[in-house]
Amino acid sequence: QVQLVESGGGLVQPGGSLRLSCAASGRTFSTYAMGWFRQAPGKEREFVAAISWSGSNTYYADSVKGRFTISRDNAKNTVYLQMNSLKPEDTAHYYCATKFGTSSSTSHDYNYWGQGTQVTVSS
Question: What's the distance, Cα to Cα, between the start and end of the chain in Å?
């Protein structure tokens, strides 16, 4: 069993930055791929970014590429999502998730999910 707890969300103006964190329980965190997804009201959950267990491979949705950076610290059992140049369309509830094996952009591939943290981009 893995438990995930997200933090770092909030209200930010367009063009601003936020860093989300996802703390994971479990001694085998370093063997899991991690992903970030988001869901805006009335929309389906969508892929944002993913990172391999080692951190050597990262993947991004086209909509965030060049603005968001996913990273992980296996010693701290934590994955991060640095979000820069935020836009109003980035407003959503952000979730981290974990899966065994390789990274994926498909939400159904992930085994465990956190409760999420709200990000609102507005002036």
Answer: 40
Rounded CA-CA distance 52/33 in Å is 5
The residue assigned the tokens 């438990």 is 3
Chain-centroid distance of CA 62 in Å reads 15
What's the CA gap between 76 and 72, in Å, rounded?
8
Predicted pLDDT at 31? 83
- Residue where the block lists tokens 């992980």: 72
- Phi and psi for 42 in degrees, rounded to 5? 80, 5
Rounded Cα distance between 114 and 94, Å, is 9
pLDDT along the chain (123 residues), means of 10: 94 98 84 95 96 95 98 94 98 96 94 96 97
